[in-house]
Amino acid sequence: MKNNNIYFHLITLIVVLFTLVQSTNAQSNLAAENLQTLVAKYKSDIRGPYKDIRWFCTDGSVRQPKDPCPDNIGPGVQHARYKDEVVALGKSNHIYFGQILAYTTIDELWDANHNHSRLKQYQLDKYLRLVDDGWINQKGQFYRGSVQVEDEEAWGIAFYKSILSKDAVVTDNFYFIRQSLKDIPHNGDDNVAQLMRSESKVISDLYTPFMDLRTKIHSQPEKLDIQKVIDFKAKNQKSLTTDLNKKLDGLVATMNTFFKPVDVQSLLNKSKLVKGTVLGDKVQSFVDGMANNESPSYSVNETAQLLLEIREELLTEKRSLARLQLLDISLKLEELLFQNAPIWEPTTVSGQLEKICALTTASVGAGYLELWEWEQISGVLSKFNQDQLSLAELTQVLETARAAVEWSAAMVKANYQEVVNTYTTFEPKSYAFIDDRIRGSVALHLGQSVGELGDFISKESALTNKVMDVANQSTFRGLNPGYAFGELVVVDGSSEDIEVSADKIYIFQRSPSDLKPVAGIATVAEGNMVSHVQLLARNLGIPNAALSDANLQSLKKYDGTRVFYAVSNKGNVIIKPEAQMTDQERGIFVKKERNTDKIEVPVEKIQLGNTDVLNMHDVDASDSGALCGPKAANLGQLKKMFPEQVVEGLVIPFGIFRDHMDQQMPGENSSYWEYLNTMFVEAERMRSANVSEPEVENYQLRQLETLRGAIKKMPLKEDFMNQLESKFKSVLGSDFGKIPVFLRSDTNMEDLKEFTGAGLNLTLFNVLDKEKVLEGIKDVWASPYTERSFKWRQVYLLNPENVFPSILVIPSVDVDYSGVLITKGINSGNDKDLTVAFSRGAGGAVDGQSAETYTIYDSNGYRLLAPAREPLYNTLPATGGTGKKVATFQNRVVNDKNMAEIKTLAKTIRETLPKETNSDYEGAYDVELGFKEDKLWLFQIRPFVENKKALSSGYLESITPKINTEKEISLNTKL
């Protein structure tokens, strides 16, 4: 049997290696299951991912381990070589196992062309080794000579000497470089905080009773916890193995090191290049001040200020090694702050506000917030010296501080999420890496302080969340009013492959980009308030809230529970089990007739006889729903109003689609159009026969899948293609296939007064090739028949069979940044304010990116609601297709000049659009726009549709407290 097992493993490895070679030859990626097999293999291999050990000499020669480099060619370094399949894996998948720094060039590790992936993998590898007993080096960690510490440290110093010499690199990557110092050896220091967390995690994984102590150490570590670990060991001695005893002793030793008083003076004495400089003198002054004042409030305030000054003035020091020493001091200061923040326990509102301000300052100094973001919020957070604040002012401080916590966590995710997602597919333990980094940040203590302030304000305002029995409820924040009842589904991980159900309530880390209908949602990474998902939720009255990662973890135990979920008009959140629902709450969900609250797509004015490709100049708002959808009609209207801000365009009207649908459908005894309508007739027959709605829907989706596939292969008529050739030349000024264009689906079901339809159908970016444009037209025609689009409109439409797509064809503009303008203050609640959200590159804000979001006040000024934290953005090359560029966050996206221009645009739209279109519409508008070299371009305008029923619901009114926002609160009030 044993021999059979060996034989089986050999066969498995041969298959894996063969697959790897084939993959490398084809330059394709290894599947996750194959990577899992490789990881398992390396864990049990006494050499891990390494093949052998060699001397690497200065002249490039490689020598045997017992044959060192001779003196006449200079010193060499000794370390392991990677297994051949590890090298191949790097080439095929850009995945690098067991990286040895001395075996890597500086440019290879910095890996600028892959968003620094190799360095991030090096950091993740270090984390995995801590939490998984060496991970792929489980046996290989004892492979003597594979890595030489002194060589790795020398390499680290050379690395930072190179990286820190470039001002632009330091400015663009301050957070990431500073984080890397915790992992790349360069001065003998270790990341003790991470070691403490990983050791406690390993113990709790092996021995469940330790979980409460692990949670405490991870969420609010303090020196008293050392004794708690010692007491735990004594109390559970009979149940502990020798290995657990050893691990607990190791944790106690690590905790003693972590809580040992930080000796900044000693570090300064070692930093010889810093002593005597302007910043060096500030560090010395800080050390002297700390010797004379040991209060935790003084320590936290002064530490935070020095952290900020080191960041602000780092570039005034031009020597790269001096910069390295200053950054090491910065890390040591963060350790000091970690020790003192829990000890500072304010007793008054003023003290709590002061602590929050100090911790936010420290977050900026440590790189979790950008300097320009601090400029935007520092005024609001610096009000702790006033005698009193109104409840409205105090709430604004809370919202701003809560935002700072979210932005800090988002900085970690923006830098590491891509690499973590890749590794999680084959090593699930990778997923906790981001949480570990956040817990090792100032945001840990800042979040705690903000939660305590939130609890105080909740009592003063009676705006209290009631979410099961989870802790720190003040971090829940309603985004969109509504109510729902159904099974709670908590998704702790990627949501992209989750199959959602319309009758369930979902808690996501980040909502999927193509979210299908759900009963309710809440997200940790809310994206932005004007993304297509958010607009659909707002339109349909789906309750939507933001929460913290800790809240999500607390809710995991309720996964699968049937709950009632509501978000009030003021943003307080209720989630409670079915058993606790009131009669009023149960009454909301009494089954209604199928057609209640549904609308009809207007078809009375549709003109299906027009089969000419139109110049966008020749359409305007009056043609919406007649010749084409509202995108083309409204953009044609905008072209008349803002001729310099709107591109030229072509419109493929409803009639061309309808004409093509009258062709014979292959494999059927009917046309495409007859096939579609037969499906709807059969669906109604099934309902009349009391067939269940899920079964009816399943039938329709199967039929639509067949139709969609047929439309994509549909022959295009010669006259239509000839018109395209001619119009590209005469209207767009270029031969067909020589200018990249957007193909935007534009149906008659969009932008109705009661239904937005935002983002439900296909838009194709920057298509250049003639054949791809023709294929794209058919893809866009087919897109209203996708499952997602069909399900969303089934919620609202009585006559989904009368949905007709037109297509707007416009030249691409490779904008620097783009986004959405809503001509009302969503956050402020003031119809005269504006909401804007922008991301870098094309297609900004609409697909749920972490967008830079503002309220622009009607009175004057603006307020930053969120910065952009999207690590990659779209570009539109002249060769067609889309490119990706790496974003950095040190500069804001939208400048003051843009803000002024947006405000002027909104004023013009409000005043002139209803007149120009003879419309009685009085609501807000949703405008898509972008800037190229500071020039504003307009791409779309539509009504901003909200769910009036949810906003005016009697139940939602009943759970919305009446708040006296003018109530004055003394800052001397006890917490």
TrEMBL record:
TM stretches of this protein: none
GO molecular function: ATP binding; metal ion binding; pyruvate, water dikinase activity
UniProt keyword list: ATP-binding, Kinase, Magnesium, Metal-binding, Nucleotide-binding, Pyruvate, Signal, Transferase
InterPro entries found in the cross-reference section: ATP_grasp_subdomain_1 (IPR013815), PEP_synth (IPR006319), PPDK_AMP/ATP-bd (IPR002192)
The protein's Enzyme Commission number: 2.7.9.2
Cofactor(s) this protein requires: Mg(2+)
Metal-binding in keyword set: yes
Recorded metabolic or biological pathway in which this protein acts: Carbohydrate biosynthesis; gluconeogenesis
Signal peptide positions on this chain: 1-28
Catalytic activity field: pyruvate + ATP + H2O = phosphoenolpyruvate + AMP + phosphate + 2 H(+)
Residues covered by the Pyruvate phosphate dikinase AMP/ATP-binding domain: 627-949
PANTHER family recorded: PHOSPHOENOLPYRUVATE SYNTHASE
Role according to the record: Catalyzes the phosphorylation of pyruvate to phosphoenolpyruvate.
Family the entry assigns: Belongs to the PEP-utilizing enzyme family.
Protein name per its UniProtKB record: Phosphoenolpyruvate synthase
Species whose genome carries this gene: Maribacter aquivivus
